[in-house]
Design a protein that fits this description.
By secondary structure, this protein is mostly helical. The protein has six helices and no strands. It is 67% helix and 0% strand.
Length: 100
């Protein structure tokens, strides 16, 4: 989340705490502030793994998926989705320790 968006979110949260903003509005604003998950190409997944200098099996262990899943992502026959894609975002931004 950008600094500006975080500041606005903090202000809306403060208004919510004093009941100046409804629960529904707060939830809708929370959803708007969520970062989008990028589309992971086979090349990008392979590059992430190589940047960390780990094997497909090790990446699979970090992401709680099978090595076969990582292999399929790198071949382009399937793509990471949902929580797994979010974990990849966290790993890219903050390193493997963030998802260990």
């Amino acid at each position: 989340m950008s600094n500006i968006l975080k500041s606005i979110h903090d202000d809306i949260q403060a208004l919510h705490e004093i009941d100046a903003v409804s629960e529904v509005t707060m939830r809708n604003f929370d959803v708007m502030c969520l970062s989008t998950v990028p589309k992971y190409t086979p090349e990008r997944i392979k590059q992430i793994r190589k940047n960390f200098r780990i094997s497909q099996s090790v990446l699979a262990a970090y992401l709680c998926v099978t090595p076969k899943a990582v292999q399929k992502w790198e071949l382009g026959t399937s793509k990471p989705a949902g929580a797994t894609a979010k974990l990849l975002v966290l790993a890219e931004k903050n390193g493997l320790k963030a998802i260990a």
